[in-house]
Specification:
Layout: H1 5-15, E1 25-27, E2 35-38, H2 41-45, H3 50-53, E3 62-65, H4 68-81, H5 84-105, E4 113-115, H6 119-124, E5 130-132, H7 134-150, H8 165-181
Parallel strand pairs: 4-5
Antiparallel strand pairs: 1-2, 2-3
């Protein structure tokens, strides 16, 4: 399939019955090597299949078509990723990595795990101890972000950076007690 202006225009007119004139084709403004196709507003507004074409409320549909060589390479890689040969090394490694992490976490006595929906978690965790939810992981990530931003001692380029591991432990412990449990020590 060759992506010339004529072939792209022909395909568009075949799919969009209301396009009275071929939409103008121009290079995208972002500097990427893509062809930008923008439909006329009057053609898009009148179309009964508009919700299937675009999510834009008022603007007409815009298409970005990548260069043919890039498109073909991308399609080839997507097809390769679906093969068992491609997925096999990743599947084995995924379980290994999680099991190593789980062993490292055992001394902390965790009773429940909040994770995303990565397959290794569901394969190696008891469903009663596991919650796969984006909301839960976002809360945990928010706490970690707060910890990083509030404890400037962990950033080497700040004035209050301490080389002492003991000082780091004390400051983090005080912060966790105050922030997570609401009690000052």
């Amino acid at each position: 399939m060759t992506f010339t202006q004529e072939s792209v225009t022909t395909r568009i007119l075949r799919h969009c019955k209301l396009a009275s004139v071929p939409p103008p084709i121009a290079p995208a403004r972002s500097g990427q090597e893509v062809i930008q196709i923008r439909f006329a507003p009057k053609d898009c507004r009148a179309c009964e299949v508009r919700p299937a074409c675009t999510r834009a409320k008022t603007q007409p549909r815009t298409l970005l078509v990548r260069p043919q060589l890039y498109h073909e390479a991308l399609q080839t890689m997507r097809q390769r990723q679906l093969t068992a040969e491609f997925q096999e090394p990743y599947a084995a490694r995924a379980g290994e990595v999680f099991l190593k992490l789980k062993v490292l976490l055992e001394p902390f006595g965790l009773t429940h795990y909040y994770t995303d929906k990565w397959g290794a978690y569901t394969r190696h965790l008891d469903p009663k101890q596991h919650t796969a939810s984006k909301r839960s992981t976002q809360k945990i990530e928010h706490k970690h972000l707060t910890l990083r931003t509030r404890i400037k001692r962990l950033v080497r380029k700040t004035i209050c950076f301490s080389k002492s591991t003991q000082m780091h432990d004390i400051v983090i412990g005080l912060f966790v007690n105050r922030y997570a449990f609401g009690r000052s020590v």
